[in-house]
Amino acid sequence: MKESGINSYGRIRLEKLPNTRDLGGIRTIDGRSILPRRLIRSGTLFEATTGDIQILSEECRVGTVIDFRTETERKQKPDPEIPGIINIFNPILDEKTVGITMEEEEAKEKKELFSGIIDHAASLGGKPESYITKLYEDLVLSDSAAKQYGRFFDLLLEADDRAVLWHCSAGKDRVGIGTALLLSALSVDRETIVKDFVLTNAYVMDGAEAVATMVRKNTGDHVLADCVRVLLTVSEEYINQAFHAIDSCYDTVDSYLTKRLGLSKEKKNLLRQKFLTAGSVD
Questions:
Q1: Residue 97 class from Cβ within 10 Å (0-12 exposed, 13-18 middle, 19+ buried)?
Q2: pTM summary value
Q3: What number of other Cβ atoms are within 10 A of residue 236's Cβ?
Q4: Exposure pattern of 200-223 as b/e (b: 16+ CB <10 Å)?
Q5: What is the rounded distance in angstroms from the CA atom of residue 77 to the CA atom of residue 104?
Q6: Is 265 helix (H, G, I), strand (E, B) or coil?
Q7: Distance CA 58, CA 78 (A)
Q8: Is 12 helix (H, G, I), strand (E, B) or coil?
Q9: Which of 58, 103, 128, 178 could anchor a disulfide with 170, C-beta 3.0 to 4.6 Å?
Q10: Radius of gyration over every alpha carbon of the chain, rounded to an integer in angstroms
Q11: Which tens digits make up the pLDDT trace of 217-237?
């Protein structure tokens, strides 16, 4: 018998999509938990095999795919067409910003990636921290990101009772922040949110190390290779930087969700009713 690609919750084991995860089972502060096969975060779907698509559509019951990438990224690596699934374009950042995030690390494109990563890493002078700080501040404070994350919540509420999957390229920056905001709205504690954010490294680290090794071998520059590794992975500091920016400007994440993203108390309650196990609502 064919082994299922789904654990009770957590990583969905797929052939070509290493960072696809079901949020089902994550517990909230009030003791409820996210329903299984309803909320799925992922990296690009471009490399999905026939078997991967079957698991997502049949076992996970994905009904809506929300694409956080830019138009250029979508054209370069279009999502597979899956019968019965609605694909919605919801770009979080503009082309200029995403052009230097370098989220991709697929092995098939190492030669092209090598050139892009080298250029970007070299431009940071071996110190990617300032770039990353700016990126994560943009993800929570820029007008364009706030508008699109606000729309993300509306799309979640509008979706049918099948699973919603959202993705960017590697599923770590734009998806990482979007997921953190969603978990916050569902009343998941910050420690759990941070753990989910850094869990990405468990699934992208091998690819990041491979690219960093290639950079080191081809350039002999260890500092540059380390910079590349930083750009292709995540750190607890990144999500904490985003939360710090929110707290500094809005005092609390809850206030940010309401005032900046337009997520009213009514919408929050509807989200919780839709995606959490039964329980009381505030």
A1: middle
A2: 0.88
A3: 12
A4: bbebbbebbbebbebbbeebebee
A5: 11
A6: helix
A7: 21
A8: strand
A9: 103
A10: 18
A11: 888 878 778 887 888 899 999
